[in-house]
Amino acid sequence: MFFKSKAKTEIDYERLPVHIGVIMDGNGRWAKKRGLPRSAGHSAGADTLKKIVTECNQMGIKYITVYAFSTENWKRPKEEVDFLMNLLLGYLRDAERSLAGENVVIRAIGSRKELSEEIQRQIIKTEEFTKNNTGIIMNIALNYGAREELLSAVRHIAGRVQAGEITPEEIDSGMLAGALYTGGQPDPDLIIRTSGEERLSNFMLWQAAYSELWFTKKLWPDFNKNDLYAAIIAYQNRGRRYGGI
Ligand code: IPE
Ligand code: IPE
Ligand code: MG
């Protein structure tokens, strides 16, 4: 016998967020609280991620973008960066079997050229392996920063102007959005951030223009299905006006 949690029964499945963004924060503090190395927090966070993606997919959410490594995270000690890169490599490898089996489409967003060749190859492999799946589209933001994303989009468009393909007047918001890593995807409806920090930290600055933001003090490794349901219910109780009345 399965019992649905109370929160889950309150969700209106006709009005689910189409795209959820997640700033998975607090792994280090989670580990520290337990007297463990920060790496233990990252490993626990990776397990949480699997569970949450599986749940979102089962619920019928169409897109999830998860912030895994920012363009600023290179500032961390080499040991931690190396651990995170290895964890991500393992995650992408493992995803071919586990998440792909659940019909998830996996894509990496962010600047690839700074990543190791091994990770770059694995990204291509995992993307190729899952591209024909029909379940949730999971964007893993890996060496992602919204400012870098905007700069590279602007450079791309400027190149088209220089080549005489378009005039500056033809540049519109659709063209710019299309040149972002998320080109062709809807903007996130809901952005969740764990760990009590209430900022975007360079996550989806363009796409988040009208996203509903939801914060929780819970640290990412402790985040569970019920927290996800709570975020979705809070989202469904917001009035989205987009500047109207
Ligand atoms: C989020 O947890 C994971 C990454 C940024 C890679 P943190 O590592 O930022 O954990 P805290 O914020 O230090 O607790
Ligand atoms: C944001 O978390 C980046 C990721 C979750 C990958 P950080 O821990 O890097 O952000 P700040 O430094 O608290 O803003
Ligand atoms: Mg943090």
UniProtKB/TrEMBL annotation:
Keyword Cell division: no
EC number, as in UniProt: 2.5.1.-
Active-site residue numbers: D25, N73
SUPFAM superfamilies per record: Undecaprenyl diphosphate synthase (SSF64005)
Family of the protein in this entry: Belongs to the UPP synthase family.
GO cellular component assignments: cytosol
Cofactors demanded by this protein: Mg(2+)
Gene Ontology biological-process entries: polyprenol biosynthetic process
GO MF terms held by the record: ditrans,polycis-undecaprenyl-diphosphate synthase [(2E,6E)-farnesyl-diphosphate specific] activity; magnesium ion binding; manganese ion binding
Keyword Metal-binding among UniProt keywords: yes
Name of the top EC class for this enzyme: transferase
Positions contributing to substrate binding: 26-30, 38, 42, 70-72, 74, 76, 193, 199-201
Quaternary structure and partners: Homodimer.
Keywords linked to the UniProt accession: Magnesium, Metal-binding, Transferase
Pfam families named in the record: Prenyltransf
Classification of source organism: Bacteria, Bacillati, Bacillota, Clostridia, Eubacteriales
Protein name per Swiss-Prot or TrEMBL: Isoprenyl transferase
Annotated binding of Mg(2+), by residue: D25, E212
Organism field: Candidatus Avimonoglobus intestinipullorum
Cofactor-binding details, from the entry: Binds 2 magnesium ions per subunit.
UniProt-listed NCBIfam families: PRK14830.1 (NF011405), uppS (TIGR00055)
